[in-house]
Design goal:
5 helices
């Protein structure tokens, strides 16, 4: 199977933002603030995004990186980035962002989390991806 994206009239493509976007504290904070505004239970956030990713891909759509290569969003990708069954980070990070500005660039693992969270926010909810 070719890695080249060949669209048809019904296929859609979403581009994942590069990790360097999330190195910028203001961008990371913006995602944290938005995540806090959703008011979703933290344990359901990962599940909702995983379902969105699966539904989008099952509908024949694709994720790409900024270079046009296929961006892998495999089942369990978000879950594997959290070494915390309670997903406490999903409530702690938005709380930190509301409290004050981020003073330094997030760690690489946080950047990876934010990249997938941001992509999950842009992925149409189930029922709208087709």
């Amino acid at each position: 199977m070719s890695d080249e994206y060949v669209p048809n009239e019904t296929s859609k493509m979403l581009t994942a933002l590069p990790l360097t976007v999330f190195e910028i504290p203001e961008n990371a904070r913006a995602i944290g603030l938005l995540l806090g505004e959703l008011k979703w239970p933290r344990r359901s956030i990962v599940n909702r995004f995983e379902l969105r990713f699966a539904y989008f891909l099952d509908a024949g759509h694709q994720y790409r990186d900024y270079d046009g290569n296929q961006f892998q969003v495999v089942e369990g990708a978000l879950e594997s980035l959290f070494n915390d069954p309670g997903y406490k980070w999903l409530s702690e990070f938005p709380r930190l962002c509301r409290k004050s500005r981020l003073r330094k660039a997030p760690t690489k693992i946080v950047q990876c989390r934010l990249q997938l969270i941001e992509l999950g926010l842009r992925t149409p909810p189930i029922g709208y991806a087709v």
